[in-house]
Design a protein that fits this description.
Helix content is about 40%, strand content about 15%. By secondary structure, the protein is of the alpha/beta class. An eight-stranded parallel sheet has the order 1-2-3-4-5-6-7-8. α5 links the parallel β5 and β6. It is globular, with a radius of gyration of 17 Å. The two termini are about 15 Å apart. About 50% of the residues are buried.
Length: about 250
């Protein structure tokens, strides 16, 4: 059984057939899915999905792209959403300096506030970190995120950065990138991460693994990620599937 620890089934690319795709993934041995949010509307949609399907759980939070114009009322709304029993994390939150959709100062301010909320709620955090690792780690340390832990999703850094993350009580999640032809660094990380600190994900509809790259991603492709990681570590598929599923259940309290 597989656990897709990061999906976006409320994305417009699933507008016509989300339920059918989700059901197909479940039939294909994806026993758990965590649907992450990026704004208030997607929080509502993620919770609705979690209530529709017994094997879907939700994370609520504001993505760094959407922190411009964020306010304290939105933080209170997120806190209210987190009272739902199927909400198991705050996320995805973090910093993204690759794009400039929101000013850096806004991103940092609301990232810190959302970590503080997670610590108060005793929920783990799902971290988006793109071209902003130093600031991300500084804020994590300052806001004591180590107390609740969490996961760096769709990890694209190297081994040294991974070591830094693991020391801060975080898991690391790998996705379709490990299957890409130029995935040397991703495979080095896949071999380095202790098996009890590894999660896997699709980040669907994005990051589709080979040989389906360029198509819409969904949780049915999770097997390709697990198979590639197993190959890189010299272990069998079931070991990766079982370990990453148990890790995600432990992290998210499922």
């Amino acid at each position: 059984m597989l656990f897709d620890s990061h999906a976006h089934y409320n994305d417009v690319k699933f507008k016509e057939d989300a339920y059918e795709v989700i059901k197909t993934a479940y039939i294909n041995d994806v026993g758990y899915i965590l649907n992450a949010s990026s704004d208030i509307a997607s929080c509502v949609e993620s919770i609705a999905l979690s209530q529709k399907f017994h094997f879907i759980y939700a994370a609520v939070g504001i993505h760094p792209h959407n922190t411009k114009g964020m306010n304290s009322n939105m933080l209170e709304v997120i806190a209210d959403f987190a009272q739902c029993k199927k909400v198991v994390a705050i996320g995805e939150i973090g910093l993204d300096y690759y794009y400039d959709n929101s000013p850096k100062e806004d991103q940092k301010f609301w990232f810190a506030k959302q970590i503080n909320l997670a610590v108060n709620l005793k929920l783990p955090v799902i971290i988006h970190d793109r071209d902003a690792h130093e600031d991300t780690m500084n804020i994590i340390a300052k806001e004591n995120a180590k107390e609740v832990g969490g996961v760096f999703h769709c990890y694209s850094g190297g081994v040294e950065m991974a070591r830094d993350i693991l020391e801060k009580n975080f898991y690391i999640s790998l996705g379709g990138a490990v299957t890409f032809k130029n995935a040397k660094r991703a495979l080095e990380v896949a071999k380095f991460i202790p098996l009890d600190r590894l999660l896997i994900e699709t980040d669907c509809p994005y990051m589709t693994p080979e040989p389906h790259r360029g198509k819409r991603n969904d949780s049915s492709y999770m097997r390709l990620v697990a198979e590639k990681i197993a190959e890189s570590r010299g272990i069998n598929f079931d070991e990766v599937a079982n370990a990453t599923t148990q890790n995600a259940k432990r992290l998210f309290g499922i």
